[in-house]
Amino acid sequence: MGGKVAGSITVLTDNGEIYAHTRTEMIKIIERGDMAKIVWKSDMDMFISGLFQSNFKALALK
Protein backbone atom coordinates (compact mmCIF):
# COMPACT_ATOMS: atom_id res chain seq x y z
CA MET A 1 0.00 0.00 0.00
CA GLY A 2 1.18 3.49 -0.76
CA GLY A 3 0.53 5.07 2.65
CA LYS A 4 -0.64 4.61 6.20
CA VAL A 5 -4.12 3.17 6.73
CA ALA A 6 -6.52 5.91 7.82
CA GLY A 7 -9.07 4.71 10.37
CA SER A 8 -10.08 1.08 10.70
CA ILE A 9 -9.84 -1.77 8.23
CA THR A 10 -13.29 -3.06 7.20
CA VAL A 11 -14.07 -6.78 6.93
CA LEU A 12 -17.34 -7.94 5.33
CA THR A 13 -19.01 -10.69 7.35
CA ASP A 14 -20.62 -12.55 4.44
CA ASN A 15 -17.50 -13.32 2.41
CA GLY A 16 -14.52 -12.00 4.40
CA GLU A 17 -13.47 -9.28 1.93
CA ILE A 18 -11.12 -6.75 3.51
CA TYR A 19 -11.10 -3.04 2.64
CA ALA A 20 -8.62 -0.42 3.77
CA HIS A 21 -8.25 3.23 2.89
CA THR A 22 -5.38 5.66 2.98
CA ARG A 23 -5.59 9.39 2.44
CA THR A 24 -5.28 8.89 -1.32
CA GLU A 25 -6.78 5.49 -2.22
CA MET A 26 -9.26 2.72 -1.35
CA ILE A 27 -7.85 -0.83 -1.40
CA LYS A 28 -9.53 -4.27 -1.55
CA ILE A 29 -7.47 -7.06 0.02
CA ILE A 30 -8.02 -10.82 0.05
CA GLU A 31 -6.44 -12.76 2.91
CA ARG A 32 -5.24 -16.27 2.07
CA GLY A 33 -4.02 -17.83 5.30
CA ASP A 34 -0.35 -16.94 5.58
CA MET A 35 -0.42 -14.16 2.94
CA ALA A 36 -2.60 -11.36 1.62
CA LYS A 37 -3.13 -10.04 -1.92
CA ILE A 38 -4.25 -6.60 -3.09
CA VAL A 39 -7.10 -7.19 -5.55
CA TRP A 40 -7.69 -3.59 -6.65
CA LYS A 41 -7.01 0.04 -5.76
CA SER A 42 -9.13 3.11 -6.43
CA ASP A 43 -7.91 6.69 -6.26
CA MET A 44 -9.85 9.01 -3.95
CA ASP A 45 -10.28 11.73 -6.59
CA MET A 46 -13.96 11.18 -7.41
CA PHE A 47 -15.22 14.50 -6.06
CA ILE A 48 -15.28 17.66 -8.14
CA SER A 49 -14.30 20.68 -6.11
CA GLY A 50 -16.91 23.36 -5.61
CA LEU A 51 -16.42 27.10 -5.97
CA PHE A 52 -13.57 28.24 -3.68
CA GLN A 53 -12.80 24.64 -2.64
CA SER A 54 -9.99 22.20 -3.41
CA ASN A 55 -9.49 18.48 -2.76
CA PHE A 56 -6.45 17.79 -0.62
CA LYS A 57 -5.63 14.13 0.05
CA ALA A 58 -9.31 13.04 0.02
CA LEU A 59 -10.45 15.95 2.20
CA ALA A 60 -12.56 18.80 0.85
CA LEU A 61 -11.21 22.07 2.19
CA LYS A 62 -12.94 25.43 2.16
Outline the fold blueprint.
Elements: E1 10-11, E2 18-21, E3 25-32, E4 35-43, E5 54-56, E6 59-61
Antiparallel strand pairs: 1-2, 2-3, 3-4, 5-6
In short:
By secondary structure, the protein is mainly beta.
Radius of gyration: 14 Å
The percent range for strand residues is: over 45%
Tell how many strands the DSSP assignment holds: 6
> What is the mean pLDDT?
76
Write out the strand line-up for the largest beta sheet, numbering strands in chain order: 1-2-3-4
Account of the 3D structure:
- By secondary structure, the chain is mainly beta.
- It has one domain.
- Helices cover 0% and strands 47% of the residues.
- It has no helices and six strands.
- The strands form two sheets. A four-stranded antiparallel sheet has the order 1-2-3-4, with no helix packed on it.
- Strand 1 and strand 2 form a beta hairpin.
- The chain is elongated.
Features:
62 residues, mainly beta, 4-stranded antiparallel beta sheet, two-stranded antiparallel sheet, 6 strands
